[in-house]
Design goal:
The protein has 574 residues and is α+β, with helices and mostly antiparallel strands. The chain has 3 domains: 50-237 and 408-459, BirA Bifunctional Protein, domain 2 (2-Layer Sandwich), CATH 3.30.930; 258-388, YbaK protein, CATH 3.90.960.10; 477-572, 3-Layer(aba) Sandwich (Rossmann fold). The strands form 8 sheets. Strands 3, 7, 8, 9, 10, 11, 12, 21 and 24 form a 9-stranded mixed β-sheet that branches. The protein has a 5-stranded mixed β-sheet with strand order 16-14-15-17-20. Helix 2 packs across helix 11. The radius of gyration is 30 Å and the shape is globular. Bound molecules: adenosine-5'-triphosphate (ATP) and magnesium ion (MG).
Length: 574
């Protein structure tokens, strides 16, 4: 490709809304153009990386036995009503109406469409298992589209769905898909981890996420080097936390809690400092509401946070919120900040996290304005209605398997695989006949992978102050051939000859034949990050040489005889 005729326009300007480096660099390198919030055009240059990603995905999924198909983006509401998601999905679902006033949506995912197809075609266990995938445009009206392709509203996803006669067959395909995903992210040259993920309230089925490690990642993950345990913090468990020392004993009332005045002190830190105790010796009580419309109280150690995903799963609800000031006062008789488990009767449940079980003589809110209790004991003074794991696991917490401290890092979720079970097949009547002629709902798995998000993640991992450093498999071109001063006949002829030779060898070469100053060309070369750079210049040619360098190591420049240049490129790309 000759740059002088190519659709590739770089810019020095960083878009105002580009918070992360991949968004900045993809825009500056002319790979994407914003049309509206979270909606982008992939330019010819950008689409080359996207296409490479798609090719890697297709190769590995075909190898895993999945079959490619292509489903419509626009889906009728009836299917979503059947599965129950027309109500459930909320505002991320882009809904529309046709000229006959029929409801449709722009698909954010395709469980309903694929289940509808399979229920009409597949009748017998003999036709199972099947594994189908597509690479297709999705629309999700994300509340905060941001980070360019990382969290768009319209985006490309590879989505696959498998159908099985039993759980064992699902397990086998799930493992095959997990292996295929590993091969895909390895082939992209990415540093990634597979973590256990939250699978919501859909049975006890399992789910894994593929995380590209990056500071800017929106997900938090904990890992243990000793046991290999790795999980999204939404899901992560910890071993038993060391018990905090008992709080100070009251001299006057050693056998019962003592109420102390804490005027205006509502945070754990304020109260702990005032009473001279550690936050870990305090009990924090939060009041929540949900669509079930009852108030529940949740107790956790003062120095720790509640994992609201775990709480929602425990309560089997979709939406959780902290109770309003009025609701808190109604339940506790005190303003926000003074709730505690002692005498708390106006909530339907008091759920205590395991972290508070070992606490003794602890401090908690007194359910009275400006007052706390000290010296509180479980059993004697208060009793939770239930114990649960509601801990948001953090840095240094003990691994649930080895007990060793875990580390916390950030990741970009590029893929998510999920054992669905019969959630869709049951509600939508997707049945098969088993070997005894009985009808059963099929067992399903689903497997998502973000195409654009993965390309963006590769840039988050590969960049420096000057621009992108592509992993070769996702680079838009393999080689950038720069002619310095192409107006010079000798330079132009040598560059043209090398360009022809590289093309003949099947090398993907971008030929910078523009009439631009060398400084501009070098700056652009660093920005667009093509792995191998060849420079044809007057000075080198007088010695019969061409300069080459690798984008990953730009300061190291080498030269090669003109005649050997194309062969050298072949070697470098090996
Ligand atoms: P997230 O928690 O990031 O919103 P999700 O759980 O909604 O992701 P899935 O429904 O599992 O995502 O979608 C499968 C894959 O599609 C994700 O792993 C991710 O790579 C990609 N993806 C999801 N939402 C977006 C988006 N808004 N923009 C780009 N890619 C996305
Ligand atoms: Mg999402």
């Amino acid at each position: 490709m000759r740059w002088s005729q190519y659709y590739l326009y770089t810019t020095r300007e960083v878009p105002k809304d580009a918070e992360v480096i991949s968004h900045q660099l993809m825009t500056r390198a002319g790979m994407i153009k914003k049309l509206a919030a979270g909606i982008y055009t992939y330019t010819p240059f950008g689409f080359r990386s996207i296409s490479k990603m798609m090719a890697i995905v297709r190769r590995e999924l075909d190898r895993a036995g999945a079959m490619e198909l292509s489903m419509p983006a626009v889906q009728p509401a009836e299917l979503w009503q059947e599965s129950g998601r027309w109500q459930e999905y909320g505002k991320e679902l882009l809904r529309m109406r046709d000229r006959h006033d029929r409801d449709f949506c722009f698909g954010p995912t395709h469980e309903e469409v694929i289940t509808d197809m399979v229920r009409h075609d597949v009748r017998s266990y003999k036709q199972l298992p099947i594994n189908l995938y597509q690479i297709q445009v999705k629309f999700r009206d994300e509340i905060r589209p941001r980070f360019g392709l990382m969290r768009g509203r319209e985006f490309l996803m590879k989505d696959a769905y498998s159908f099985h006669a039993d759980g064992a067959s699902l397990d086998a395909t799930y493992q095959d898909m997990r292996d295929a995903y590993c091969r895909i992210f390895e082939a992209c040259g990415l540093d990634y981890t597979v973590v256990e993920a939250d699978s919501g309230t859909i049975g006890g089925s399992s789910s894994h996420e593929f995380m590209v490690l990056a500071q800017t990642g929106e997900s938090a993950i904990v890992r243990c080097d000793e046991s290999g345990y790795a999980a999204n913090t939404e899901k992560a468990e910890a071993g038993e936390l060391p018990a905090p020392p008992p709080g100070p004993a009251s001299e006057e009332t050693p056998d019962q809690p003592q109420q102390v005045a804490t005027p205006g002190l509502t945070t754990v830190e304020e109260v702990a400092e005032f009473l001279g105790v550690e936050p870990s010796q305090m009990l924090k009580t939060m009041i929540y509401t949900s669509e079930q419309e009852e108030l529940v109280a949740v107790a956790i150690r003062g120095d720790r946070e509640i994992n609201e995903v775990k709480l929602a799963n425990h309560l089997d609800v979709k939406h959780l919120a902290l109770a309003s000031e009025g609701e808190v006062t109604g339940a506790t008789g005190a303003p926000v900040g003074f709730a505690g488990p002692v005498g708390l009767t106006k909530v339907s449940r008091l759920i205590a996290d395991h972290s508070v079980r070992s606490m003794s003589r602890f401090v908690c809110g007194a359910n009275a304005a400006d007052a706390h209790l000290t010296g509180v004991e479980w059993g004697r003074d208060a009793e939770p209605t239930e114990w649960a794991d509601l801990l948001l696991v953090g840095e240094g917490d003990p691994c649930p398997s080895s007990g060793k401290p875990m580390t916390l890092s950030r990741g970009i979720e590029v893929g998510h695989i999920f054992k669905l079970g019969d959630k869709y097949s049951k509600s939508m009547g997707c049945q098969f006949l088993n070997d005894k002629g009985q009808g059963n709902p099929m067992i399903m798995g689903c497997y998502g992978l973000g195409i654009g998000r993965t390309v963006a993640a590769a840039i988050e991992q590969g960049n420096d102050a000057d621009g992108i450093i592509w992993p070769r498999p996702l680079a838009p071109f393999e080689v950038l051939l720069i002619a310095l001063n192409p107006q010079d006949d000798e330079v132009r002829q040598a560059a043209e000859a090398l360009y022809g030779e590289l093309q003949e060898r099947g090398v993907e070469v971008l030929y910078d034949d523009r009439k631009e100053r060398p400084g501009v060309k070098f700056k652009d070369a660093d920005l667009i990050g093509v792995p191998v750079r060849l420079v044809v210049g007057k000075r080198g040619l007088t010695e019969g040489k061409i300069e080459f360098s690798l984008r990953a190591n730009p300061r190291e420049r080498h030269s090669v005889d003109v005649a050997d240049a194309a062969a050298k490129v072949g070697e470098l790309l090996e």
